[in-house]
Amino acid sequence: MVAGTIPVYGKEWTKPLNEPDGILNFLNENGDTERIFTSSDSGNYMDYYQQIYEYIVFGYALPSPGEEVIQNMKIIDASMVSSNERKVIDL
User: Which of 1, 51, 77, 88 is the most buried (most CB within 10 A)?
Assistant: First the structure.
């Protein structure tokens, strides 16, 4: 997301890394901020978004429950805002 690249449908666009490539900041059960380093899974998630498109346009089944789809979109949007503004975004 930071690079602003958009995956191309049908192509592998991420490669496995040997070290963490992301940081996840979150509030733990005590309300304290924690930070963990994360690694991206290799893969292509375009099939997921293709299925959402097919739901909207053709009425096909969603790839997961609607509430989960919406939460995923909120997380993606928040991660982009967080990266651009260099701050933690509350969800």
Answer: 51
Instruction: Give the span between the Cα atoms of 50 and 59, in whole angstroms.
Output: 12
Q: How far apart are alpha carbons 28 and 50 in whole angstroms?
A: 34
Amino acid at 14: T
**Per-residue pLDDT in tens (0 to 9) along the chain, 91 residues:** 556 666 666 666 666 667 888 888 888 899 898 999 988 776 667 788 888 899 999 999 998 898 998 998 898 899 889 888 988 888 8
Greatest pairwise CA separation for the chain in angstroms: 45
Q: Print the domain residue range for 76.
A: 44-86
Query: How many structural domains does the chain have?
Result: 2
Token pair, residue 61, equals 């089944």
58 in the same domain as 36: no
Question: Phi and psi at residue 27, in whole multiples of 5°?
Answer: -95, 125
Show the CA angle centred on residue 5, arms to residues 34 and 43, nearest 5°.
Answer: 70
